[in-house]
TrEMBL record:
The keyword Nuclease does not apply. Keywords: ATP-binding, Hydrolase, Nucleotide-binding. It comes from Streptomyces bikiniensis. Residues 27-287 form the Carboxyltransferase domain. This is Biotin-dependent carboxyltransferase family protein. Coiled coil: none annotated.
Length: 287
């Protein structure tokens, strides 16, 4: 084996390369993208001695498996899951030293949805607009992992401050999303706004990196006309014709023609990344 890297043995349902995204290009039709649970991505990077913005793997539900082509420090975090190295149990949520040729297996999430895997030195695929993140909607960045693909790694630096018990937040039993109403809340009836603030929704199985689709009571519109396409932001709560809200996540479109009743605070969206289908969701209007 030559060179620093990892080879994909099992790609899992959907595993992508993610960092903290590519902000500043919305005017060109490019959203930030990046890790859906950025706090988890930052923490696994710190565990292996990387800068917080280094590229990691983001797994979905059933993890992945990779073969190390060099000795490397690995940390798995995000959704709790079993971890194995060459078939033997290994620690989740802390740094593990892995020998060249060893297979690291990230198992199915026990709670939550998305796991994060950091390698010492970070994943060094070719950046696009300053980021190594995969954007599923636009197709920017590296393709989702496929069996046999090789991901290059950067130079590893020693971990200076070992962490024995990192402060991992557990995946949510229920989501509470703080939402600032507007800019199109006046397109909805007063009853619809009361419904949004007082009724419970559930996470739909149709959710993905683009948006958190919700099941529950429809929001009645006061204005039934067409809306010209306007800019969309991270956390926007768009309401399509069926009246069920959609909370836009990292790979959201940059424009849309359905009214946005409010915008969820970015600090609440990491928990949304770990909410499994059926999770209860409540909106709390804030100023």
């Amino acid at each position: 084996m030559t060179g620093r890297g990892v080879a994909v043995v099992r790609p899992g349902a959907l595993t992508t390369v993610q960092d903290l995204g590519r902000p500043g290009y919305a005017h060109l039709g490019v959203v930030r993208s990046g890790a859906l649970d950025p706090a988890a991505a930052r923490l696994v990077n710190r565990l292996v001695g990387n800068a917080e913005g280094a590229a990691v793997l983001e797994t979905t539900v059933d993890g992945c498996a990779v073969r190390a082509r060099c000795a490397v420090t690995v940390a798995v975090g995000g959704a709790p899951c079993p971890v194995r190295v060459d078939g033997r149990p290994a620690a989740w949520g802390t740094a593990v030293r892995v020998a060249a040729g060893s297979v690291v297996e990230v198992g199915t999430a026990v709670r939550g949805l998305r796991g994060y895997v950091a390698f010492g030195g970070g994943i060094e695929v070719e950046p696009v607009l300053g980021s190594r993140s995969t954007d599923l909607l636009s197709g920017l960045g590296p393709a989702p992992l496929a069996r046999g693909a090789v991901l290059p790694l950067g130079a590893e630096t020693p971990v200076r401050v070992p962490i024995d018990v990192p402060p991992w937040p557990g995946p949510p039993d229920a989501l509470v999303l703080r939402v600032r109403l507007g800019p199109r809340d006046d397109w909805f009836t007063p009853g619809a706004l009361r419904t949004l603030a007082t009724r419970a929704y559930r996470v739909s199985p149709a959710s993905n990196r683009i948006g958190l689709r919700l099941e529950g009571p429809a929001l009645e519109r006061a204005v039934t006309g067409e809306l010209a396409s306007e800019g969309m932001v991270l956390g926007a709560v768009q309401v399509p014709p069926d009246g069920r809200p959609v909370v836009f996540l990292a790979d959201h479109p940059t424009t849309g023609g359905y009214p946005v009743v409010g915008v969820v605070r970015e600090a609440d969206l990491g928990a949304a990344a770990q909410a499994v289908p059926g999770t209860a969701v409540r909106f709390v209007p804030v100023r």
